[in-house]
Amino acid sequence: MFDFEKLLVYDKAKAFNKEVNSFIRSKNIDRTTKDQLRRASFSIMLNIAEGSGRFTKPDKRNFYIISRGSTFECVAIFDYLKDIELLKQSEFDKYYRKLEEISRMLFSMVRKLS
User: Fold this and answer.
1) pLDDT > 70 in the chain, percent
2) φ, ψ for residue 28 (rounded to 5)?
3) What is the pLDDT of residues 40-49, one digit of tens each?
4) Whole-angstrom Cα distance, residue 12 to residue 97?
5) Which residues of 48-71 are buried (b: 16+ CB within 10 A; e: fewer)?
6) Which of 1, 50, 70, 112 is least enclosed by beta carbons within 10 angstroms?
């Protein structure tokens, strides 16, 4: 078993990424926004995995910071989709809560590595 597979935040990021892919398939979103959302949500998960494989605390920390940045990017994209009325407030709130939880978990991991 790889170290990242033991992390609850990785499981949450993977589940979120799966939800994003379903969401993207179900909505009529422009190609650029779809691609950016897909890549940002995937980046959360992949940077957690990559960071867990690094040997030094600063290296691990850097990847968790990047993952957290991708979390923020997803929030911004969902906020934009809400503003242009491709996302209902209730859907936005659901994704926001999940991203907020992932962000808090990553922040805790970053702080412990400082």
Assistant:
1) 100
2) -95, 80
3) 999 999 999 9
4) 12
5) bbbbbeeeeeeebbbbbbbbbebb
6) 1
